[in-house]
Write a structure and sequence with these properties.
Elements lengths: L18 H11 L8 E5 L6 H10 L5 E3 L11 H16 L4 H8 L4 E4 L1 H4 L11 H8 L4 H13 L1 H4 L4 E5 L2 E4 L2 E4 L5 H14 L1 E4 L4 H11 L5 H11 L3 H10 L1
Parallel strand pairs: 1-4, 1-7, 2-3, 3-4
Antiparallel strand pairs: 5-6
Length: 249
């Protein structure tokens, strides 16, 4: 937990239940008895999308397949990333064809695309994930995501047997600061999320000031309310950034 970034089920010891958790829990709980659901968990960087996902799934009796993607470089082309994505699924699921991939995935209650798919660089220094690759390549990644959309549309019938949960962010970096187009840009974000909700289920992770104070005190019980409020003014309601700032201090 040195970086305060939850990367697996084992990192959930200090998790604080909030209103976002109480929204997410019944949504994921319902996956045990349903199929064909596609759930996007959204939230600004540092809010704890993965923490909420892993902590919720740890409490549920669900059979989870967590997809992973270890890329060698951010300089890979969209076609190379696409090929690596499917090669990884084929090998890990023991599937010979793409149809076999869908059949194997349907054996699970949840197919999860979270940190070891998006951010494996936190686990392996010589690898990168889809998140960093997207961030570094910007508009050039459109080809890859267009193919993802086309795959989704072509295989809607196969996906009726599969539940997918993914933590989703559309990151834009400006002057060294990361922003999420889905949560940080008010009207534009509202429009984008509105469109996303037409096709998928969406759960947003966000916190009140009171919840942030509880989260931080779960790690640092000695912190005063005034000190935490000052950090909220600087970093927003993003607990991971506040915790990392406290660690540096």
């Amino acid at each position: 937990m040195a970086s305060y970034k939850v990367r697996s089920f084992q990192d959930c010891a200090y998790f604080t239940k909030t209103r976002s958790f109480l929204k997410l829990y019944p949504v994921l709980e319902g996956l045990k008895h349903s199929r064909g659901r596609f759930i996007h968990v959204i939230g600004a960087p540092g809010t704890g999308k993965s923490a909420n996902i892993y902590s919720t799934l740890a409490l549920l009796d669900l059979k989870v397949y967590e997809a992973f993607l270890f890329l060698d470089s951010v300089e890979l082309t969209p076609d190379e990333v696409w090929d690596q994505f499917w090669a990884t699924l084929h090998e890990d699921l023991g599937a010979e064809s793409r149809d076999d991939v869908y059949q194997e995935a349907a054996q699970y209650d949840v197919v999860l695309f979270a940190d070891i798919f998006l951010d494996p660089e936190y686990l392996l220094e010589d690898k990168v994930g889809l998140g960093l690759w997207t961030e570094e390549n910007g508009p050039k990644t459109v080809t890859f995501y267009t193919r993802v959309l086309w795959e989704y549309l072509r295989h809607r019938q196969d996906l009726k047997n599969i539940n997918i949960v993914t933590q989703t962010a559309w990151i834009l970096k400006y002057q060294g600061v990361k922003y999420d187009l889905l949560t940080d840009f008010y009207i534009l974000s509202w429009i984008l999320v509105f469109i996303l909700k037409i096709f998928f289920e969406v759960v947003r992770i966000s916190y009140s000031e009171e919840e942030i104070i509880r989260i931080i005190r779960n790690y640092h019980s000695h912190c005063s309310e005034e000190e935490i409020k000052n950090l909220i003014n600087k970093y927003g309601c993003r607990p991971r950034f506040i915790l990392e700032a406290l660690k540096k201090a």
